[in-house]
Amino acid sequence: MTATTDSPTPRTINWAILGTGSIANDMVQILHQLPNTTVLAIGSRSPSSAQSFGSKWNIPRRVSYAEACSDPDVDVVYIATPSMRHPDDCRMALQHRKAILCEKSMAPDHIVAKQILDAAKSANCLCVHGVWSRFFPAMTKIRQIIHSGEIGEVRSARASFCQNDGAGSCSALAETGIYCAQFLQWVLGEDASNYCASADEKNGGGIGPVVKGATQTLHESGFDEHVTAIIEFPGKKIGTFECSLAHTSERSATVYGTLGVINVPFPFWCSTQVTVTKMTGLGSQQWSEPQVYEFPLPSEIVPLSTSEEVEGRPQTPGFNFVNSQGLAYEAAEVNRCFRGGLIETPLFSTAQCIEVLRIIADIREYASKGMS
Ligand SMILES: NC(=O)C1=CN([C@@H]2O[C@H](COP(=O)(O)OP(=O)(O)OC[C@H]3O[C@@H](n4cnc5c(N)ncnc54)[C@H](OP(=O)(O)O)[C@@H]3O)[C@@H](O)[C@H]2O)C=CC1
Ligand SMILES: O=C1OC[C@@H](O)[C@H](O)[C@H]1O
């Protein structure tokens, strides 16, 4: 088996994609290369876009969103539309009892996310929030390092995801902040289900993460474009958070322990490298040689080229986003869960998904109060 196969005798799974934009372009190349996987339908708001994308990527059924979701032959719907559409697009797919892989952010907050996840549970449908970071082997390694005690007791962590990339067209919290929130939860959080139990105790010192400070800059469109926050996790562990769509940062993350640090360099949200540096002795002045762990992207997945022109424009072959080969981890996990009859993935559980969106909502609320 390779990084992207999930069982020795798998059944073929038929996918539909909603939306013909940048990430759909990357994911279709992944799905075409996963074993026993077919991209059966492309759904678009516009018949001509469905036609162009379908012809470029050899997808037989070129239809509307509603037709893609209601197609009886479709097993999994990949929602690759803009974030503000995700709740409605999820509901549409669930009405037809389809499994869902929904791009981030699945919902603006934990309340809407819970409604969707509850609907998926009632329909007995798999619903995966496509925070693709969670499916990278490097993320598993980070948890192993923490649990091994190599860096001592973890006290804090930071994550920064700032890129000058269309501020004003969407929320930085939803686009890049979610990667910081999920990282901090992964390295500082306890079992996310504890958090759900305390979800109504907003100021009652519940056992989940609590936002201790947050500030934001709003774009004239009303969307947040730069947000910073401090989050206290159980055990007084502190997470520092920064996201922006208006300026740049190194887009890395770090975990700090009593005996050393874990560095996750750019691009931390789709990481292929983790470095551990131990620091001990007087003034933490004894540094170990950094131990570097590499997790190469799945070599069987390559960028596919196409000679098609779309609307008269030649198309650039390859992927739009850094490390998009790693989308294969997420898509293979969806296939595995679907085949196994699961309704959630253990790699990003329903409870963890709700907790991450709760952190985002609490940061938004805290930062908004600071502005009034
Ligand atoms: N996992 C990852 O690495 C990445 C994830 N993303 C996420 O994927 C989602 C889509 O992002 P991206 O592909 O960059 O976006 P694009 O704008 O490139 O594409 C979105 C597509 O959605 C459809 N659409 C439906 N309603 C609208 C609307 N009101 N305005 C614009 N397009 C609309 C369009 O397809 P049509 O006209 O055919 O219906 C469009 O092509 C976002 O939620 C984003 O956060 C984005 C980049 C990377
Ligand atoms: O989700 C994403 O949004 C922003 C992109 O730059 C990034 O690569 C991608 O993962």
**What's the overall average pLDDT, rounded?**
92
Hetero groups = NADPH dihydro-nicotinamide-adenine-dinucleotide phosphate, ligand LJPVP2WV
What's the CATH superfamily of the largest domain, by name? Dihydrodipicolinate Reductase, domain 2
Number of domains: 2
- The structural class is alpha/beta
Largest sheet: 9 strands, mixed
Kindly state the number of beta strands: 17
Net shape: globular
The portion of residues forming beta strands comes to 25-35%
Distance between the termini: 56 Å
Rounded radius of gyration (Å): 21 Å
* Share in helix: 25-40%
Describe this protein with a few key phrases.
single chain; 372 residues; alpha/beta; Rossmann fold; Dihydrodipicolinate Reductase, domain 2; six-stranded parallel β-sheet; 10 helices; 33% helix; binds NADPH dihydro-nicotinamide-adenine-dinucleotide phosphate; binds the ligand O=C1OC[C@@H](O)[C@H](O)[C@H]1O
Overview of the structural elements:
With 372 residues, the chain is of the alpha/beta class. It folds into 2 domains: 13-132 and 301-341, 3-Layer(aba) Sandwich (Rossmann fold), CATH 3.40.50.720; 137-294 and 358-371, Dihydrodipicolinate Reductase, domain 2 (2-Layer Sandwich), CATH 3.30.360. The protein has 10 helices and 17 strands. Strands 7, 8, 9, 10, 11, 12, 13, 14 and 15 form a 9-stranded mixed sheet that branches. α7 (172-188) crosses α10 (350-371). The protein is globular. The N and C termini lie far apart (56 Å). Residues 192-205 have low confidence and may be disordered. Bound molecules: NADPH dihydro-nicotinamide-adenine-dinucleotide phosphate and ligand LJPVP2WV.
